[in-house]
Amino acid sequence: MSEKKTKRRDFLFTATYAVGAVGAGAVVWPMIDQMNPDASVKALASTEVDISSMDPGKTITVLWRGKPVFIRRRTQQEIAEAKAVNLKDLKHPEKDEDRAKNPEWLVMLGVCTHLGCVPLDQKGDYNGWFCPCHGSHYDISGRIRKGPAPTNMEIPEYKFVNTNTIKIG
Amino acid sequence: MKNFLRIFLITSLVFGISVKSNSAEKIEYLTTDWSFKGLFGKFDRGALQRGYQVYTEVCSSCHSMKYLSYRNLAEKGGPEFSIAEAKAIAASFEVTDGPNDDGEMFTRPGKLSDKFVMPYDNIKAAQAANGGAYPPDMSVLVKARGGGVDYIYSLLQGYEDPPVGMSLDDGVYYNKYMYGNKIKMANQLSDGLVEYGDGTTASVEQMSKDVTTFLMWAAEPHLESRHQMGFKAIVYLIILTILVYFSMKKIWSRVESEV
Amino acid sequence: MSDHEYTPKSKFGKWFNDRLPLLTLASHLTDYPTPKNLNYWWTFGGILTFCLITQIVTGLVLAMHYIAHADMAFDSVEHIMRNVNYGWLIRYIHANGASMFFLAVYIHIFRSLFYGSYKSPREIIWIIGIIIYLLMMAAAFLGYVLPWGQMSFWGATVITNLFSAIPLVGEGIVTWLWGGYSVDNPTLTRFFTLHYLIPFLILGLVVLHIWALHVPGNNNPVGIDIKKPSKDTVPFHPYIVIKDGFALLMFMIVFAFFVFYTPNILGHADNYIEANPLVTPAHIVPEWYLLPFYAILRSVPDKLLGVVAMLSAILILAALPWLDTSKIRSAVFRPLYRQFYWILVADVLILGYVGAMPAEGLYLLVARVATAYYFLHFLVVLPILGYKEKTLPVPLSITEPVLGGSPNLALAKNKENFKD
Fold first, then answer.
1. What integer pLDDT is reported at residue C400 of this predicted model?
2. Between residues 91 and 110 of chain A, which touch chain C (CB distance below 8 Å)?
3. Which residues from A are below 8 Å from C87, CB to CB?
4. B75, B111, B240 ranked by CB distance to A19: nearest
5. Segment B189-242, tens digit of pLDDT
6. What gap in Å lies between CA C187 and CA C418, rounded to an integer?
7. What residues of chain C lie within 8 A of the CB of A30, using their CB?
8. CA distance linking residue B249 with residue A27, whole number of Å
9. Within its chain, how far is the Cα of C126 from the centroid?
10. What is the CB-side half-sphere exposure of residue C367 using CA atoms within 13 A?
11. What torsion, rounded to 10 degrees, do the Cα atoms C106, C112, C115, C120 define?
12. CA dist., res. C288 & res. C84, Å (int)
């Protein structure tokens, strides 16, 4: 067999393998993607919450995308306390103004950033939230102060539709 | 290669028989130039949007479409209303939601994620309102009828006076395409019944075609991507088959035997 | 099993192989000497393996989204079709995959009938194959119930009612199968469980099927025993692998056409109507691949005997290696058997056709004649043919021409007997 012939044969086999591999990859993707959120789950992206009956110092928990969202109407004292914290004392420095657009209302994903448990309200060393799973303490702005959690509790996208309604998502 | 011919012959024979057996009824349905048939078939957007209008204004007072959501109206491969249009459509319906914090159900304007509002609370209510006949849910209706789109298209235009000697009970109508020719739905379509926004003349034939196209999409919302993917898949398979064929020839040339 | 000892080259390979001889197995599978004259009818074994794996993979995926509850099953299938990413694709592959699986298995079975692959020493391979076929029918039936459409519901009702034909205990068995007084939610959940289980049983049996095959090796179109390895054989890899691959791709093109362009043509429209225990569809028809047996069932006017006839039609195949008395395997050298073989093929196709038609008038008559012939073929024609038929001369090996004036297989056997 001449060298030229060998080369052509090698090319043929390589091409066959390569084309076959592309097809195998294309078949695998649908089998993986089917486990991603489906169209109906993606569509349920927003929730509207009526906050007209909430007094200062009260927290409610609502379900959004299968997770709890804490909505707290903070007292003036709590707001002052949250604003007074020195950013240098924080593990994950964030200003309270950046976390609560309207300082009276804190809207935050009620999920501990450590391993996903739901922290308890009005507990812990900082008068905010305390996660019972592994002892993370959050302040009244939901910022991590002590314990294993790496970051502050997440603020979801939300807006005030009117004075009585918050739309999350 | 002779063997392949034989394989294909037998395959087509077997499938020919089963396909024939699936269409046991021999009624000639009306048909039209469906845009979604064929290897590259796509829906006619205009027909889908008009069909949705016919569904909403005519059919939806009795027929539910429980598997569709308003978001589907804006999805690719469907009527492709803009998001804003779909939101406006959704908001024009009153949706029951709840219970609220007081434990009561309440109504609110529809959202994209809501399912199409149902005309009746349950099947019993639908039967009670329609002389005992349940107007079937139309989400998969096209696939649930032997003749498919042609059947629905024909049925909508198949109302006639009953033949001499046939007596019909109250609330029963004669339709030449209905199984047994007796149908509990009165003729719904008449020329000019709806006013199309795009200026198309709303003849009975046109409305039948539009609403049937809409129902086809409702039953098979991924039809367009199925056709597109299918074409690519088959072209790919043919290329790979050719490559493998020549590889096989090469490999088998090492032994003196024919493949 | 293996006719040569394999020693891995690397030190680790040897260490591993001494403890778990996976490499020896892999080497056996790749070097496995295969008759070089296998034609394309032999590629359906590989195609069937592909079908089984496709059904298992797509089935696992569907089970992640399907809800086995009478109130939600139909909705969950529609959810898969509409919302799940690529759900429509996966479901259509699974639904059409069942038909493709049966198409391939029928070709595989009829190939075996033509070339006498069920004969000694391959009886166990054949019987395992029949068990796989039975399990496939069970899996297909159970799977057809899961979408909970009208055909699902009434198919389940009719098939489970077959058991009521058993004297005395029949009614009790049916109630037990249902878990109630009709096909309902308990029936659906147990059918789902069994539908999930059976493919893995089939997988296990496929391993045994192939293991049993590798003991005597493949039959071949000439139907004679061959020396292995010899100039009559080629190693499985790459020769048979590439050939099976080529045939598989051709098969996949047909498969893809059904999935992408006519995904519902093999199904029944009534199954897109949600199950309704109050209304029976006008025609209850099983899926096409069960039609011949359905025709046999309906051609017998007695309930119990009909069920017996239908079961016998399948079980009779297990006795085939002993019913066929001919010593010659391949129909190539059996001119009379060849005629009867094609008559049987036509007979089964006719049974399939009348199975789809209403059981009345001419159809019923044809069904009865075809049923009678089916049993006649196996119980009368085959045993007699073995003694009466004048066969053609059989060659000594695949590569050598027929010896002049020696139609005697015994001679061929003496010369080319098993040496391994």
1. 66
2. none
3. 34, 38
4. B240
5. 999 999 999 999 999 999 999 999 999 999 999 999 999 999 999 999 999 999
6. 52
7. 85-86, 89-90
8. 27
9. 11
10. 27
11. -170
12. 29
Calculate the alpha carbon distances from C42 to B89, B208, C208, C220 in Å: 59, 51, 18, 8
Query: Looking at chain A from residue 22 to 61, which residues have their Cβ under 8 Å from any Cβ of chain C?
Result: 30-31, 33-36, 38-41
pLDDT at residue C405, as a whole number: 41
Tokens of B66: 């429980």
User: Distance (Å) from the C-alpha of residue A12 to the closest C-alpha of chain B?
Assistant: 7
By the CB < 8 Å criterion, does A3 face chain C? Answer: no
The minimum CA-CA distance between A24 and chain C, rounded to whole Å, is 13
CA distances from C378 to A60, A125, C329, C330, C350 (A): 77, 86, 16, 17, 17
Q: Which two tokens stand for residue A145?
A: 């102060």
Q: Is the pLDDT of residue C27 over 70?
A: yes
Report CB contact under 8 Å: C89, B227: no
Instruction: Report the gap between the CA of C320 and the closest CA in chain B (Å).
Output: 24
Write out the DSSP string of B119-136.
Answer: SSSSHHHHHHHTTT----
Q: In 10 A of CB C168, how many CB atoms?
A: 7
Question: pTM value?
Answer: 0.90
A-B interface: how many C-beta pairs under 8 angstroms? Answer: 36
Which tops the pLDDT comparison, C189 or A41?
A: C189
CB under 8 Å to C182, separation ≥6 — which residues? C157, C277
Determine whether the interchain pair A23/B250 forms a contact, defined as Cβ–Cβ distance below 8 Å. Answer: no
Portion of chain B with pLDDT greater than 90, in percent: 72
Compute the distance between CA of residue C326 and CA of residue C332 in angstroms, rounded to an integer. Answer: 13
pLDDT of residue B2: 54
CB atoms closer than 10 angstroms to residue A21: 10
ipTM: 0.90
Asked if residue B138 lies in contact with residue B52, where contact means CB atoms within 8 angstroms, the answer is no
Q: Is the pLDDT of residue B17 over 90?
A: no
Contact yes or no for B226 and C252 at CB 8 A: no
Split at pLDDT 50, 70, 90, the class of B132 is confident
pLDDT at residue B259, rounded to an integer: 43
C278 interfacial to chain B (CB closer than 8 Å):
no
Residue A134 annotated in active site: yes
- The reply to whether omega before C121 is within 30° of 0 (cis) is yes
Residues 6+ apart with CB under 8 A from A18: none
- Token pair of C205, please? 């049996």
